[in-house]
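User: Here's a structure from my thesis project, written as structure tokens. My advisor, Dr. K., wants to see whether a designed sequence matches the one we expressed. Can you design one independently, without my sequence as a hint?
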């Protein structure tokens, strides 16, 4: 059932006082206007107009409906205008989530630049290391690191991350440098969220259980401990790259480095993507990689 049918015709007749004038306003025939108004009355099961050969008048029901019909027309016009303006100048609020450290250091600076370029776009960012439900919580984009679980979400790869094992020169001078995975058992390993470190050995992924004097769920804290000679650490490259450049740390076991993993912008599938969301995805991708990143559904 077309709930909009006859509303424009009825309003035109009611405001002009004539089916003939209404037909001129709508650039259609009198018969078409009359037919549409009659269909509207049948749909509402109420007579909206009284018609005689000399007079056309609104019924009480017609007066009530006219007020609401005008509101419907205005709301439709506003919605249409809002979409046109949205295409011309992105507006609205985008709701994002990202892991705490990565969001603070890498995502938000890009988002701030984006907001400076598109000042009518507002952003709500929730930094959390939990895997939040995008659809249930109304997020437009989530930044996810590493392997993605299968789902109905869409994903756009922004970049890659490599995971390295490092230690300070001083630690290695005192304890020696391991050259095999079995030697990790003889070393102080600084443990993060998992007591297993991932490696790639002889074309196979291997998880090695490690232990040591410190266990902490902060990558920055583990980095600081490694720089202060407390042990070996396994961290993504963006934690350790400056320390490697400054020779505070040395990469060890490079031949066992696990395969690189994607850094993703994940978002719910939608038939019509708002301009602001599309532009932000493009902006993030362009910042991380000048080449077009891959896009895929997680089916």
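Assistant: Designed independently from the structure alone:
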């Amino acid at each position: 059932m077309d709930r909009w049918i006859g509303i424009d015709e009825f309003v035109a007749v009611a405001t002009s006082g004539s089916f003939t004038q209404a037909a001129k306003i709508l650039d259609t025939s009198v018969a078409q206007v009359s037919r549409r108004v009659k269909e509207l009355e049948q749909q509402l099961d109420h007579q909206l107009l009284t018609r005689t050969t000399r007079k056309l008048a609104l019924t009480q029901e017609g007066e009530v409906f006219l007020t609401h019909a005008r509101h419907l027309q205005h709301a439709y016009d506003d919605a249409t205008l809002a979409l046109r303006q949205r295409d011309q100048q992105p507006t609205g609020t985008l709701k994002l989530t990202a892991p705490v450290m990565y969001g603070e250091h890498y995502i938000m600076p890009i988002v701030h630049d984006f907001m400076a370029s598109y000042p009518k776009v507002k952003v709500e960012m929730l930094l959390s290391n939990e895997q939040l439900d995008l659809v249930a919580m109304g997020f437009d984009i989530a930044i996810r690191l590493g392997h993605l679980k299968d789902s109905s979400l869409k994903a756009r790869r922004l970049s890659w991350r490599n995971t390295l094992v490092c230690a300070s020169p001083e630690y290695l001078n005192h304890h020696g440098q391991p050259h095999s995975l079995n030697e990790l058992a003889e070393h102080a390993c600084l443990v993060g969220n998992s007591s297993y470190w991932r490696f790639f050995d002889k074309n196979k992924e291997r998880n090695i259980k490690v232990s040591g004097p410190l266990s902490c769920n902060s990558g920055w804290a583990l980095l600081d401990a490694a720089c202060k000679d407390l042990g070996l650490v396994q961290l993504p490259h963006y934690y350790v790259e400056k320390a490697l450049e400054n020779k505070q740390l040395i990469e060890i076991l490079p031949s066992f480095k696990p395969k690189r993993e994607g850094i993703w912008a994940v978002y719910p599938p939608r038939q019509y993507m708002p301009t602001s969301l599309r532009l932000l995805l493009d902006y993030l991708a362009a910042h991380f990689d000048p080449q077009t990143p891959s896009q895929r559904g997680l089916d």
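When you compare it with your expressed construct, this may help: The radius of gyration is 32 Å.
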